[in-house]
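Example record

The entry below shows one chain as it appears in the dataset: sequence first, then C-alpha cells.
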Amino acid sequence: MDAGSNWAGNIRYAARELHRPTSIPELRRTVALSRGLRPLGSRHSFSAIADTPGDLVDVTALPREFELDEDAMTVTVNAGVRYGELAPTLDRAGFALSNLGSLPHITVGGATATGTHGSGDGNGTLSRQVAGLELVTVDGDLTRISRGDADFEGAVVHLGALGVVTRVTLDVVPRFTVRQDVYRGLSWGDVLEHFDELTSAAYSVSMFTSWAGEDFGDLWLKSTGELPEELYGVRPLAESVGLAGGESANTTRQGGVEGAWFERLPHFRLGFTPSNGEELQTEYLLPRARAQEGIRLIRELADRIAPQLLITELRTMAADDLWLSGAFGTDAVALHFTWKPHAEEVGALLPQLEERLLPLGARPHWGKLSAATDLAALYPRIDDFRALADRWDPRGKLRNRFLDRRLFS
C-alpha cells in the first residue's frame, strides 16, 4: 500500500507498507512482526520525523475511547483522536483542556509526542497536559507509564522512539469560555519595549508579523476576562480576519464574541483547510530571557525573509520538565515561520536563521523544517533519553535517519 505524503506534500513517505490496525491485538502483532517501523499521526509534520523505509503505523482506526475520571481530573482517549473531535465531547461533560494548539486537526498522540503547543505565559505545551501513556513496545507488549513513574518525564515527548502509543491520559480543568480580539497597528518599537506586558495581556496571546516595515502586524488576544479598550493607542478590530492568506471564514470567531474554549483557543476551525494549505513551516523555541535579542537578530534578515514568507507567529509558553520539550527548564518564546512552498529558497534561508538563534539556546520544533542536524547540545537530559530509548528499543527498530542524525549521532 502506497503510504502517500505528509499534509504539506513536501515529504513523500518511503515506507514499504502502511498499517491501519483496527484493534489492539492487531496492532501488537503488527509491531512485533515488523523489522522497522515508525508511528504516524495526522501527517502534519513538515520534517521527516515519521519517514521510514520500513512500516508506517497509523492508529486512527482503533476503536474510539473516552474515559473521564472526575476525581483525578483526567480523561483517557485514543492517541489517534483529533483535538477538534475530543474537545466538544469533553466540553459537554463539563470539562476542558487548559490549552490547545492553533490547529484542531492534529492528533493527541502526534502533538504530545513532538512538544506541540499553543500560547500563553502561564500555559505549558500540550505535552505538559499528559498524565499517562499506554503504548505497544517493540516486542508487541502493551505497557503503561504514568506521572510519578521513573522516566515519565523522558517518555512524554518521545518522538515515536519508545513504541506506538495507543492511549493518552490528559489533565482536564472545568470548562471555560474565551473571547478573541485582534489588535492591529502596533509598531515594532511598542512590541519590543512592551513585550512582556503584551504577552501577559490575555490568557493566550499570538503575535503575527511579516518582519518588514515599522508596523508590527496583528495581536490576537484570547481572554477569559475583560480586555483593555486599547493597547498602546490601538483598538481591537470589529470584524474577523484571516491568516496566512486564508479567508476569515477559516478562522475561529473574533470581534470579542465570547465562546467555548475549544471554539476560540485554536486559530482555525476544524471543518476548513488548516492554515494556508500550500505552505512549509519552521519553528524555534527560544529561552524567554533571550527572546527579544533573538527577535532583533531575525529582523536583520527581514529583506531576505519577506519574499518567502506567508506569516510569522510569536507565542509564549511556561517551562516544563519534559526532557525533549522545547520548553524544558525554561519559559519559552516560539518563533514560527509559515513559508510559501518554496523549498529551495527556504532551505537556503534556514541556516541563516539558525546561525543567529541556536547560539541563544533556541530549539527547533521536532515536526518542523530545520537545517540543524545534531541537536543533542540543546537538551541537558539527552543522555538520559538515549539510555531510555536503548532500554525500550535495544535493536533500534523505531529509529530512522531523522532520529539518528538529530539525537543518536
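Notes for this example: The chain has two domains: 66-175, 177-364. The domain at 66-175 is CATH 3.30.465.10 (Uridine Diphospho-n-acetylenolpyruvylglucosamine Reductase; domain 3).
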